[in-house]
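Hey,

The postdoc asked me to send both predictions to you directly instead of through the lab channel. I've kept everything plain text so nothing gets mangled by the mail client. Protein one:
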Amino acid sequence: MDSPSSPVADDPRLGACAYLIHMLLQRAEQCQPGLLDSLLGGVSADRDAVRAQGAAPAGVDAIFAETLRMLELASAQLKAAGKSG
């Protein structure tokens, strides 16, 4: 079964940006513990505020979803590394 192609896989520049942001988020969390949780809370609050205003422009929900996914992934990987190391 073929999986749909990812925009990151199709464009190395997007992949490089996602990788760099991921590394920067993890480094920032190490220097300032709690930053990722704060960012997660802020993004969730912004998403909820946009939804409360009514219909958002096309693609806005997907942007919030991807932002939250990236933050959650960075956080989960740091927590897993902390448990194993």
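Protein two:
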Amino acid sequence: MRRTACVVIAAMLLGALVVAVTPGEAAAQGSGAGAGRIAVKLAPGIRLAENADGSLTVVRDWDSLASAAVLPGLSLRASGRIEGIGVSVLEPVQIGGSWQADRIGLDAMVRALQLMPGVLWAEVAVPLQMCLVPDDPWYAPHPGSVGQWGMTRVGLPEAWDITTGDPDVTVAVIDTGLNRDISDFAGRIVHPYSVIERSAAWPAWQDDEGHGSAVAGVAVARGNDGAGIAGTAWNVGVMPVKISVDGYSDSVTLAQGVEYAVDSGADVINISFATSPGLGAGATLREAIAYALDHGVVVVAAAGNDGASSISYPAALPGVIAVGATDSADARWSDSEGGSNTGSALDLVAPGVEILSYYPRSANTYTDDYIGTSLSSPLVAGVAALMLSVNPALTPQEVAEILGQVAEDLGSAGWDRDYGSGLVDAGAAVAKAAGVNPATTTTTGTPMSTTTTVITPTTSTTSTTSSTTTTSIGPRFSDVSEGSTPYWHEIEYLASLGIVTGSGTGLFHPEDGLTRQQFAKVIVLTLGLSVSEADTSPFTDVAHVPGDFYPYHFVAAAYNAGITRGTTPTNFSPYRVLSRAQLITMVTRATQLPEPPAGFKAPFPNFSATHFPYARRAAYAGLLDRVVGIGPSYAFAAPATRGEVCALLYVLLQ
């Protein structure tokens, strides 16, 4: 008798092949969220759109863009907003019970929107459903339960000796809601919300499915109260954000849930959802995760239950802590029903087999038949909450680094694709967090970081510091070869100079993305710019660690050199993934390329008022000659890969 906990997001990627789903088909698949929806993001500022009669309309927002004169034939209405990332959520217009989407189709609507002035992207939110595979229709609990074996295995009793959680710390569980009748959550539910019904009132966020309550139980159920079960962080607040009624939802709804959690004060977000194998995150969800990280919120997500050789999204996104599942023998979970996904984006593993939590739709009954990464992820989210309880100043990056540093190594020595850095060690992580002194902590970045620069205080009585730069000579990456990536030569060349490094496990991950603060460091190193503590910038969202140049002073050096201007006058968005357009713009600024002749026509259309002029200069100067795929269909808004970054930086060095 098992209840395999996993949720699959069938996320539509920009430019990916998709079959249009009619609202009727979506309703047949599930009622958890508004299937057949479209997410669209408009460029900032004023744009002009030509009306059917030849006149012009000023495009400032969706309402002006959606006028019948501007978009004849597209019967769409705005059904919501994700304000934090500037995304409008659209639905086909329903008149008299009949949907007006049949003639065009949702995918065709998206293609039409993508061609409109001022539209940065548009994408379909394809329905998703929970991967729930029970082998007993009644889900009855075992008479002889295995108990909460995982809590002891990961050292939680040692962590609880330090803290059981601070009420000022809040964990958001973005899932199917929460059963408020469960006594272990009494008095600790903060800012509950249903994205589906757009309401915080009960019973909008009630858990009618059971998955969300089980996940929340692992993360935050009250312990040491003589009743029920013990969660990971006993005394923190829990914020249930409901994105599904019956196991069906979509990627845009998840993005709305993330934004709500951030804006409502969540410190940690748990996402026990995963894309189907082969699908990515989509632009809207990527932006939402970046929004959370930019606001200092720790994001933990399930690696996925498909037994696939790559980590699913959103767990695979930069900055997200991706968690796989192990059994009581510390082996990676794998059986006839599925298995914990493996891959280069995996960070940690945690117990995920025979996990005890609340029986579906019951407040006082428990079952140990939960299995999957959906139950591993909230355990790590709870540990992150304990760490923030003893050191609320920790950034998401620092939380991830501590968890990786103290994890119990499993599998091959060091990081590996099956176990990441190893089994989470709650006791060691909380102890290290409690002892962390930001003035002496050295932060060297995520596994995607570039050359490690360590600033250590000297032993003299003066306040000066000494700097040591460690470079990698003659790197040999097992995933970089002439046959595996078109940028193998550029990667090897930059690595030989110590500008870029791999993950420390013999891998470079050429297809992964790079955060904006990581790119600031590598371009400063490429250009040989001096970096000192005197370098400052107006950006208030970049971590400033005294005694360490990264990330603040590297970002400041890039700003002072005119390479970056930030995403707003005071924000740099350091954890946001670098886009191809941003990469080209910043490299072009660094080279100070002149304007090309007036008659020069770039091999791609005008895709952005901000970035196209720089891309046009780069194309004329030959800066883009080594980039694969440059042309009319090149996706400039897509994340730049580490390989593409190396291709452009290589040109700077020639």
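Summary for protein two, as requested: The first helix runs from residue 23 to 29.

Thanks,
C.
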